[in-house]
Amino acid sequence: MFQKLGRSLTKRRLKLSLPPVAREVMRDGLTYLPLERMASLNSELERVVAEDVSGDIAEFGMALGGSAIVLAKRRGGRRFLGFDVFGQIPPPTDDDGTDAHNRFKVIADGKSTGIQDGEYYGYMDDLYGRVVSSFEKYGLRVDNQSIILRKGLFQDTFAPSESDRFCLVHIDCDWYDPVLFCLTSVSRCLNPDGVVIVDDYNDYEGCRNAVDKVLAEDASLRLERTLPHAVIRKLRS
Question: InterPro entries in the record, alphabetically (predicted)?
Answer without folding.
Answer: SAM-dependent_MTases_sf, TylF_MeTrfase
